[in-house]
Amino acid sequence: MSAIAAKAGADAGAFQPVPSIIALVLAIIVIAVGFVLGVGQTLCLIVLGAALIAFGVHFVPVGGAPAAMGQAPGIATGVPMLAAGAGLAGLFGGAWAAELGLAVALAGGAIGGALMMAITCLMVNMSYVFGMGIPPASGKIEKDPLTGYTQPEFKSQGTEGHGLPFISYVGGVIGGLLGGLGGTLIYLELLAFYEAVMPAADAVGLAGILAVAMFLVIAVLAAYNITGTIEGPHDPKFKRFPRAIIAAILASALCGILALLLMVLA
Amino acid sequence: MSVKVEASHGGIPHGKIAAAGIIIALVSLYIAVIGHEVLGFDYFAFFGGIAAIGALIWGNSAIKRLCSYGIGAGVPSAGMLAFGSGLFGMFLGIAIGAMTSVWIIPVAVLVIALITGVILGWIANTVLNMKIPVMIQSLAELAAVGALTTLGLRTVAIGGLELEAGFVFVAVGFIAVAFMLGAIALQHPFNACLGPGETQDRTNMLVIECGFLSMIIMAVISFVAVSAVAGWISLIIAIIGWAVSYKKYIALSKRDAAAWLDAKPFVDAEEE
Amino acid sequence: MQEIIIGIGVTALAGALAAVAGAAEDTESNIGSQGDPNSQVQLAPQMGYTHRIYNKAVSGEPPAYTLWVTLACGVAWAFLMMGMNAILAIVLGTVLATIVQGVYATTAYLGRTASLSKFGQPVFTDVLKSVTTVTMGHAFVAIFTTVVICYLLATVIGHPFSLPLLGIVWGLALGAAGSATGNPYYGKERQYQNQKFGAGVPISASGNIVRYAEAGQRSSIDNGFFTAKFGGPASGLCFGLIVFFELWRTVLFEHYLAGWGAVIAGAVIIIIFMVIDRYVEKWARENYGPYTEA
Q: A136 near A125, Cβ under 8 Å?
C-alpha cells in the first residue's frame, strides 16, 4: 500500500507560522459565520473533535512496509487506516451508548477505540515475540521512558528496530482513545443537530456517514503531516502535531459548516 | 526500502482528460435529470453510472499527477480524502437543489466540492508544508471527483437526483456503499497499474472497468428504489459494459506484459 | 434479564464469528499477498528476482475489506428490504462481494505485472487462475462472517447504525486488526524465510524474497497453510477479542451506574491487556537476550 518514496527535506517537519495563523483566522471566521447562523456551539464541538482526532493519530505507532519485515518498529499498516479503524470502532461504541447521555457516550467511544488498539497492539507484539522470535526494540531512543528498558542492543542488525516497545504500545492506546473520543464527539454533535430537523433513522444515517467521512479526511491530513511512519509519542516526528491540529481545525470547520448548512432543509 | 511510484509520462495531457471527464459527468447527470423530471420515468438511471465513470477518469488522471510527486503516504489515502471531502459538497448541493431546483444540483455539487478541495489543498500545502506544486489543484479536482462519483452512483440507485427519494438512500446507509465503491474504484487503477511500464490507455481501461463494476453493484441495490424495468436496464448495461472493458483490459495487459506464460517456470538470470 | 441473556448469546456468537473472520482475512490477504508485505513482491523483479507470487495490489487490507464488507452488507440490506430471507440475502450479498473482490484481485495482478515488463517479470496465467479462486474462497468466509456479525448487531442487539454503516465500521476494524497482526508474520517469516530467524530483515536484503519451494518455484498458494499455523489464528484471536470485549462490556455492564459500568469495565480490560503486554515484552527480553555480535 505505501509504495511511495517519502519526500525528503530538512525542513519537512518545520512549523509554518504564517500559514498557520492564516488558517486559524480563517477557521475563526468560519466559526463566527456558524454562530451567526445559530450553529456555533455544534461547530465548535465538531472542531474540538477533529483536533482530538488529529492529535490522537500522532500517538499511533505505524511502521508501514518496513515494519512488515521487521525492519522498523510499529504496526505494519497505513497510518490513516489504522487510526480510522480504531476511531470507528470507538464510534460504534459511542453511538450505541448515545441515548445514555453525552458524557457516557463519549467515554464509551473513547474506551472502545482504546480497547481496539490495546488488543491489536498486544497481538502485534505476540506476533513478533512468539511468531518471529523478535523482541520489541525502538530505533529512535536509548531507553524506553516508561519502563527504563534499554533499546539499542535488542535491535537486530541492519534494521531500525521492530515490534512495539511499551511506549509505543501506550501511545497506540492513547491514540485509539483520542480518536474514539473525537469521532464520537463529531457524531453526537451532528446527530443532535440533525435529529431536530429530520426523522431519527435518517439523522443516524446522515450523521454516521458524515462522521466517517470527516474522520477519514482528518486522519489522512494527519498522515500527510507524519509523512509515512512514526514510532509513537517518543518519536521526534511527534513534535509536529501542532501543525496537524491547526490543519484539522480549519478542515473540520469547513466540512462542519457544510454539514450544518443542511439545516436549510428545516 | 520501498517501491518508487512510477508512471508513464506523455500521453493525453491531464487538462484534456479532465475536460472530457467533467463533460461526460455533467452531461450524463443532466440526461438523468431530464429523464426523471421532464420525461417522467427513471429508465435513465444508468446515466448516473456513466457520470461516475467520467468523473473517475478525471480523478484517475488527477491522482496520477499528484502521487507522482511522492506525497509520503499511500495512494489509497488520496482516494479516501477525495471521497471524504467530496461527500460534504454532495449533500449540500443536493440540499440546495431541494430548495431551489433539481437542475442546479450537478453544478452546485461540483462547485462546492471544488471549493472544499481548494481549501484542503491549501491546508496540506502550506500549513502541513507539503509544498507540492499541483497539490491545491489536485485536491480540488479529487474532491470534485469524489462528489460527482458518489452523486452518479446514487443516481443509479434511486433513479433521479432530488432529495425525497434520496433520504431512503441515506437512512438505510446505501450511501455508505457508494462511498466505499467509489473510494476504492478511484485509487485502484493508478495503484494497480503502478510501475515503470504503466501505459495510459491500459490504466484508463481499468478505470472504465472499475466504474462499470461499481455500477453493477449499485444497479443490484437499485431494485429497492427504482422500477423493475429501470433496474434491469441499469444492471444489463453495467454487466455488458463491465464485460467489454474487462476483456479489453486483459488484452491490453497481454500487450504490455513482458511475457504471458501459462504454467511455465521463470528463468532466473543466475540460473544455469 | 432476558435481554442480557440474548445479548450474551449474540456476544459469544459474534466473538466466534469474528475469530473465524480474522483468520480467514489474514489467510486471504497472505495468499494474495496484499498490503504492506506486497511492496516486496513489487520490488523483487526490480532487483532482478523474478517470481511467481500473486501481486495483489488492491490498496491495503483495511480499505479493501471495508469495501467488500460494506458492499455485501448493502446488497444484503437491499435484498432484505425486498423481503428476502435473511440468510439468503446475506449469502447473495457475500457472493457478489466475493466476485467483486476476485475481479479487483485479477486486475491488480495483471496491472502491476504488466507494468513491470521492463524487468522481465512475466504474467503467469496459471498463477492467476489457481490463486484467484483460492483467495476468493477465503474472502467469502471472512466477508460472510463479518456481515453476519453486522446483521446480528443491527437486528438483534439493536444498534442504531444501519447495516452498511456497520459494515464500514467492522470491515475497517477487521482489515486493520488482520493487517496489523498478520502482515509482519507473512512479511518476515515466509517472504524472507531465507534470513536468520529471530531477527528483523536487514535493509540490504530487500527484494530477495523466497521464490523457490521444496520442489520448484512457489506461488503464493502455500501461504495458506503457512498462515494457518500462526498468523491466521493470531489475527482471528485479535479480531475476535476486539468484537467480543466491545460487545461483552456493553451488554453486561451498561445497566450499572447509568452506563458508566461499561466504561469502567472497558478501562479494566485495557489495563489487563497492558499488563499482559508488559509481561510479554519482559519475557522476550529475558529469554531472547540482546543481540550479540555474530
A: yes
